[in-house]
Structures are given as structure tokens and as C-alpha cells.
Amino acid sequence: MLSIGELAAEFGLAPHVLRHWEAEGVLEPAARVGGKRRYDESARMRIGTILRGQDAGMSLAAIRAVLGTSNAAERHAMLAEQVAALERRQAELEAALAVIRHLQSCEHSDFAQCPGFRELITAEPQPIAHSPRLHRRATI
């Protein structure tokens, strides 16, 4: 069993973050031993999941909803919107990266006059083609 400080430190978090997540319902309340929070090993996976969700731009409420359902179809539906948002953001980042890469190699003294640059600036970011990964269960 890990103390709140030990567990938080493993993820580079302050203990108050874990308390907040408990209050928000995304982290299961820890067992208390001698009045102090003690977390079991499952808390590590939960915290990792919360952090990845936040990295993906999810709110704590959205993370709570995903973690709170045991229905796979329901979970998939909840995550579909997040996937679409991430794909839009990825397209925007790739378009920005294309502009920067072009500028790195552009020979024009005034890059604003470069036809290639002008084309990149006026183009709409294209959504990334969605190719769902096969989710296979390991068989023994």
C-alpha cells in the first residue's frame, strides 16, 4: 500500500491533485489506515489513465464518464467525439509543420511571395483518414 505522497510523487504530482481527483470522482477513494490514505496497485493504472485522458484534452467529467461505464459500446461512443477532435488537431498540427518545414528550405528572399508558401497558407488542414485499429484479445 502506498501513501498519497508516494503515489503522487511517482507521477510527478502533488498530493492535493489526488485528493482533488477523489473529490471529482475520477480516482477511487483510498483505503484509510490509521487515518491516512493508502492506495493499492490498481491506483497506478487509474492515475495513468487519467493523465493520458488529460493529455488527450479530456475534462475530468469526460474521464469520469468513460471510467464509470462497464459497457464497451457506451465507452466507444463517448470516445468517438474525442477521437474526432484529436484527429482535427492532428491535421492542424501537420499543416503547421508543413509550413515550418517549407520555410526552412524556402530559397525566396521574401517567403510571402513564394508560391509554395502561399499554397500552404491558404490550404485548409485536411482531416487525417481514420483507420480504426483492430483491437484483438490475446489468446493462449
Protein described:
The protein is mainly α and 140 residues long. The protein has six helices and three strands; from the N terminus they run E-H-H-E-E-H-H-H-H. The protein has a three-stranded antiparallel sheet with strand order 1-3-2. A hairpin with a 2-residue loop joins strand 2 and strand 3. The protein is elongated, with a radius of gyration of 22 Å. The C terminus is likely disordered.
Question: What is the average per-residue confidence, as pLDDT, rounded to a whole number?
Answer: 87
Oligomer: single chain
Helix vs. strand class: mainly alpha
**Approximate shape:** elongated
Number of strands: 3
Element string (H = helix, E = strand): EHHEEHHHH
Q: Give the % helix.
A: 55-70%
Measured on Cα atoms, how large is the radius of gyration? 22 Å
Tell me what portion of residues adopts beta-strand conformation: 5-15%
The profile of the biggest β sheet is: 3 strands, antiparallel
- Provide a count of the helices: 6
Strand order in the sheet with the most strands: 1-3-2
How many angstroms does the end-to-end distance come to? 31 Å
**Unreliable spans:** 130-140
Brief rundown of the structure:
59% of the residues lie in helices and 6% in strands. The protein is mainly alpha-helical.
Q: Could you outline the blueprint of secondary structure elements for this entry?
A:
Layout: E1 2-3, H1 4-10, H2 15-24, E2 31-33, E3 36-39, H3 42-55, H4 60-68, H5 72-105, H6 115-122
Antiparallel strand pairs: 1-3, 2-3
